[in-house]
Amino acid sequence: MEWNEEYGGSILRNSSSKVRWSGEVNRRSRLLQVALYMAGLPVMVLLLGAFSVLGNEVVVLTQTACQFVEAEGIDHHFNSKSADSCRSINKASQDKRLKRVQSLRLKAGDYVFRVKNRDVPYELGFWLRGAGLSRWSLPGISGGGITTGGVRDYAISLEPGEYRYSCPLNPTPDYTLIVEK
Predict the structure, then answer these.
(1) How far apart are the first and last CA of the chain?
(2) Residue 167 domain boundaries
(3) Are 150 and 116 in contact (CB under 8 A)?
(4) I want to staple 94 with a disulfide (CB 3.0 to 4.6 A). Which of 89, 129, 169, 173 is the partner?
(5) What is the CATH number of the domain that holds 72?
(6) Structural element, H or E, at residue 72
C-alpha cells in the first residue's frame, strides 16, 4: 500500500489491486480492532484503523466548494458562499471538468464513505444511488449536516452495478462509481 501525494495526500491507494481511494488493513489488525471495540476502547480502534472501520473498506472523499476533490483530481478553489453559487459555477464548468474525471471502481462489498467538508462555509452532505433505473434496485445512502471542517461516515454494502454520487447541498456534478463482482 502506498500513500498517494498526487491528490494532496488524502487518498490511500493499494497498488496490488484495482481498488482506488481506499485503504486496506490486514486481518490481524481487524481482529484487534474488534477486540478493542468490544473492550470499550473505541478510540484505540480509530487510531489503529484510520482507513478501516471494523473490517469495512473506507473511501475518503473530500468536498470543497462545488466539487469532490478526489473525483476530479484537483481542487479548483471555487469561491462559493451558497448552493446557488455552485449551481452557476457547475453550469459553466462541469462539462469540461467531467471529461477528465475517471470513474471510481470498487469490488462489491461493505464500505464506509468518509466524507469531509474541508472548507465549504455551509452544511453539506452525500448522496450515493444507483444510476438511471437501477436507482430503484441498487442500494443507496444519503445524509447531510456536515459542517465546515466536519467529517461523516456513511456505511453501505455495495452490489455490482453503476452508481452516481454527489452532494445536493453543495451542488456537485454527478460522479460515477462502478462496482464489480
Answers:
(1) 22
(2) 2-180
(3) yes
(4) 173
(5) 2.60.40.420
(6) helix 69-72
Summarised one tens digit per residue, pLDDT across range 126-145 is 999 999 888 899 999 999 99
Q: How many domains does the chain have?
A: 1
Residue 118's identity, in one-letter code, is R
Q: Kindly report the backbone phi and psi dihedral angles of residue 81, in degrees, each rounded to the nearest multiple of 5, phi listed first.
A: -110, 0
What span, in angstroms and rounded, lies between the C-alpha atoms of 140 and 135? 8
Give the cell for residue 20. 482506488
Q: What is the pLDDT of residues 59-110, one digit of tens each?
A: 999 999 999 999 999 999 999 999 999 999 999 999 999 999 989 999 999 9
Kindly compute the dihedral angle of the four CA atoms of residues 56, 59, 63, 68, in this order, to the nearest 10 degrees.
Answer: -150
Is the distance from CB of 138 to CB of 163 less than 8 angstroms? yes
Is this model's pTM higher than 0.85 or not?
A: no
